[in-house]
Amino acid sequence: QAQLVESGGGLAQAGGSLRLSCAASGRTFSNRAMGWFRQAPGKEREFVVAMNWSGGSTYYSDSVKGRFTSTTDNTKNTVYLQMNSLKPEDTAVYYCATDRQPLRVVISTTQSDYNYWGQGTQVTVSS
Predict the structure, then answer these.
(1) pLDDT tens sequence across 2-46
(2) Is 11:124 a contact under the CB 8 Å cutoff?
């Protein structure tokens, strides 16, 4: 059974940092893009970053560009999201997900293209 498990969320002050992890197991995801999405209270879930496992292609939303960095560790089947210069508006539940289509030519930033999702991890940034 394919499984994605996020960890690393918590409470941070504005300007601080957190690192999220997403461990994949149960199947091979190395030929599919991975994405991070987030959902703030009362808002729709939104795209944060998407990348392929090689790290050769990574797309960031404008709201996190320059502050967040996503990396992969193929040996551990784990994706990381380093979040720096956190802002209160980054408060949300963060989810990792994997693309339903292997070897997609252009990495998707569309939620409906992702079919395996983790359970989410809460990030709270205080002002």
Answers:
(1) 799 999 999 999 999 999 999 998 876 778 899 999 999 999 999
(2) yes
CA atoms within 13 A on the CB side of 5: 7
Instruction: Give pLDDT tens digits for 34-70.
Output: 999 999 999 999 999 999 877 678 999 999 999 999 9
Amino acid 67 reads: R
Read off φ and ψ for residue 7, nearest 5 degrees.
-155, 170
The string over 74-104, giving b where at least 16 C-beta atoms fall within 10 Å of a residue's C-beta and e elsewhere, is eeebbbbbebeebeeebbbbbbbbbbeeeee
- DSSP 8-state secondary structure symbol assigned to residue 56: S
Other CB atoms within a 10 A radius of the CB of residue 4 amount to: 21
Is 94:37 a contact under the CB 8 Å cutoff? yes
Map residue 90 onto helix, strand or coil: helix
